[in-house]
Specification:
The protein is 31% helix and 16% strand. The protein has helices at 31-43, 54-72, 85-88, 107-112, 116-126, 162-167, 172-179, 187-193, 232-238, 261-266, 314-330, 341-346, and strands at residues 22-23, 45-48, 92-93, 98-99, 131-133, 138-141, 155-158, 206-211, 221-224, 253-255, 268-269, 277-281, 286-289, 297-306. This is Phytanoyl-CoA dioxygenase.
Length: 351
């Protein structure tokens, strides 16, 4: 008989419009940053408001459509009839509403990564301003109210392997995987995201997204099990039988409702306003709900991590730097003039 205690999901504070409580940060040292960090530690996530300006949200939505139209090969933004399954299979991971297969490298997606308020949000939660930004993709969920077949898959997952996380004695596997990255494939950037090391070392890993339009529960999008980050090690130990469904070294674990109905019942949609960032602890069971509304859901995904992480050897940092410079050039971005000093640091081009 299991002696483990039962997980009690937390109730999330919301405002009168149904949006989850958010924090506005003026800088890394402001008193609200400590309050936001305490909220993150308690709930496993935090919403930071006003990270992108309304103009930046609109420009980024336009960029998402440019990317979609480049994938499908014709203009579709203004004709919803064309947002059909046949065309959409060309846009990325259609079941999860992800635009792009590996990471994306447009001018807008790259320049967004040097947004000072985004840096402040991650720095406040990570407890250091000396951080690097990853390279990732966009999310776009088509409206489904009149087209249920366009729905994404409501899912819960972890961008890590919870059983490796609790069973490993040290971070040697993480150091090996990250040390072997050559950054010659767009998928390498996703591999970089999903190596949190082991529970005994206990690093904090923080993922995030910015919602580009107001995002209510009926629009679908990001949801999570509040407070799960503190329960992950016990949960992984109690659910070892599920590990057989995955490869030993898999670092993306999506779990169907039939195996964890209690977590699907406990998961909450993190409704937030346009321009808000949602940051979450990588140990938190999370994913997305399907859209049920007449509005698209738009988002950009992130991870940031301390620049002085032991796995960032000089050799790896140099390969990463060269790969980013090549991509910046392809995106018509001159690091000297288009990136800010903060941007050059975040991209790992200067210390
Ligand atoms: O907001 C979403 O669409 C899901 C994001 C997510 O699960 C992730 O980035 O790991």
């Amino acid at each position: 008989m299991s002696t483990s205690s039962q997980f009690q999901p937390l109730v999330i504070p919301r405002d009168s419009d149904g949006f989850v409580k958010s924090f506005t940060l003026s800088n890394y040292n402001c008193p609200t940053a400590s309050t936001a960090r305490a909220f993150f530690q308690e709930y496993g996530f935090v919403v930071i408001a006003n990270v992108y300006t309304p103009e930046q949200c609109n420009d980024t939505i336009s960029d998402i459509w440019n990317v979609i139209e480049s994938f499908v090969g014709k203009p579709v933004q203004n004709n919803e009839q064309l947002w059909n399954q046949k065309l959409w299979t060309r846009t990325g991971i259609i079941e999860e509403g992800i635009i792009g297969g590996g990471s994306l490298w447009t001018r807008q997606i790259l320049l967004n990564r040097q947004t000072p308020a985004l840096h402040t949000a991650f720095a406040s939660v990570l407890g250091t301003e000396n951080i690097l930004v990853n390279q990732d993709r966009y999310g776009m969920f088509r409206p489904t109210k009149e087209h249920p077949e366009r729905s994404t898959m409501t899912n819960l997952h972890l961008d890590m392997n919870p059983w490796l996380y609790i069973d490993q004695e040290d971070n040697s596997e993480q150091l090996k995987v990250l040390g072997e990255l050559n950054y010659d494939s767009d998928d390498d950037w996703i591999t970089e995201n999903n190596e949190p090391g082991c529970s005994k070392v206990g690093e904090l890993h923080v993922q995030g997204l910015v919602n580009l339009a107001d995002n209510l529960e009926e629009d679908g999008g990001f949801w999570l099990v509040p407070g799960f980050h503190k329960y992950l090690t016990q949960w992984a130990d109690d659910h070892r039988h599920l590990s057989k469904l995955y490869g030993h070294f898999d670092q993306f674990i999506m779990i169907d409702r039939e195996y964890i109905p209690e977590l699907y019942d406990a998961a909450c949609h993190i409704s937030s306003r346009a321009g808000s960032a949602i940051l979450w602890d990588q140990r938190t069971m999370h994913g997305s709900r399907a859209n049920r509304s007449v509005r698209p859901r738009y988002a950009q995904f992130f991870k940031m991590f301390p620049a002085d992480h032991p796995a960032m050897t000089p050799e790896r940092a140099e390969k990463r730097r060269k790969a980013i410079i090549t991509k910046l050039q392809a995106g018509n971005i001159d690091p000297a003039t288009d990136l800010t000093p903060l941007g050059r640091k975040l991209f790992g081009l200067s210390t």
